[in-house]
Design goal:
Distance between the termini: 19 Å
Strand order of the largest sheet: 1-4-7
Shape: flat
Number of domains: 1
Number of helices: 0
Radius of gyration: 12 Å
Helix content: under 10%
Number of strands: 8
Strand content: 25-35%
Structural class: mainly beta
């Protein structure tokens, strides 16, 4: 992802995908605050994602209650670095 603030939410949809920023978490932000829908979950991991689904170098902000939502019948996937504020 290019540097910037993205007003959106992400659903990985069970895909083996790497989403990474080109300039690091300080300059790439996903903001779940949508003026039309207010707040929401920033990242949805509800499709059986595994170790091959990766978010890296991205700051996640303004989730409503949770930043990340995953299928609670499974352990959370180990796909985030230590930059989640």
């Amino acid at each position: 992802m290019a540097p910037g603030t993205y007003i959106e939410q992400i659903a990985i949809l069970g895909k083996a995908i790497t989403v990474t920023s080109s300039h690091g978490a300080e300059s790439t932000v996903i903001n779940a605050r949508n003026p039309l829908y207010h707040y929401g979950t920033v990242v949805y991991l509800t499709g059986g994602e595994g170790n091959d689904s990766i978010l890296e170098g991205i700051t996640l902000i303004n989730g409503n209650g949770t930043l990340i939502e995953w299928d609670s019948s499974r352990p959370p996937p180990p796909l985030f670095d230590d930059k989640i504020p």
